[in-house]
Amino acid sequence: MKDRTGKELSGSEVARKTGSRIKSIFLEFDIFLLHLLGYFPSHHVRRFFYRIGGVKIGKGSSLHMGIRFYNPKNITIGEDTIIGENSVLDGRDVLKIGNHVDVATDVMIFNAEHDVLDPNFSAVRAPVRT
């Protein structure tokens, strides 16, 4: 079997890639559900489900409607922090937002991108702390 670049894959590589793909599908489904719940008109209900989804949220923090998450398990939001409507929080690497921070509406905080100079367009990640 070959990958998308034409490289021959061993049986263990095929199994690893298949497992990774299945894990990715389940993560995407979780993210989709969190996105839908992000439009529920209650801070308390949204915060409850975001915590179940893996986001660590401090006391007194308020997350407004329409927030999108990428890999919520790596996201920590401090106490008394506000995240504005339609913000994007990227948890593909560590994202830590401190106490008493106000993230405005429509802000996007990313901590991963693709290396456009790499022939394989591989991912580059780094933690973000505010």
What brief labels describe this structure?
130 residues; UDP N-Acetylglucosamine Acyltransferase, domain 1; four-stranded parallel sheet; three-stranded parallel sheet; 28% helix
Description:
This protein has 130 residues and is an alpha/beta fold. The chain has a single domain (11-129), classed as UDP N-Acetylglucosamine Acyltransferase, domain 1, CATH 2.160.10.10. Helices cover 28% and strands 23% of the residues. It has two helices and twelve strands; from the N terminus they run ααββββββββββββ. The strands form four sheets. A four-stranded parallel sheet has the order 1-4-7-12, with helices on one face. Strands 2-5-8 form a three-stranded parallel sheet. Strand 10 and strand 11 (123-125) form a beta hairpin. The chain is elongated, with a radius of gyration of 17 Å. The chain starts with 10 loop residues before the first helix and ends with a strand. The model has no long low-confidence stretch (mean pLDDT 94).
